[in-house]
Amino acid sequence: xxxxxxxxxxxxxxxxxxxxxxxxxxxxxxxxxxxxxxxxxxxxxxxxxxxxxxxxxxxxxxxxxxxxxxxxxxxxxxxxxxxxxxx
Length: 87
Fold this sequence. Notes:
1 helix; alpha+beta; globular
């Protein structure tokens, strides 16, 4: 299904998160820009013109991401600019 917003058009896919690596007809430069489970326990968002991916979740999930040495992650706050390079 295709979902449109004011400035974007998205392909809406549903299924288990572990199916994401085997999406049909992958294109190397495309990636999921919004991940949101049915229970809405967390949200992962990557603006396609931005440089960062954001996680909205409970403290335990965010702490786990920040503690993982294989991930390049920093805490963001409501006052953190979405893209500091614009300033």
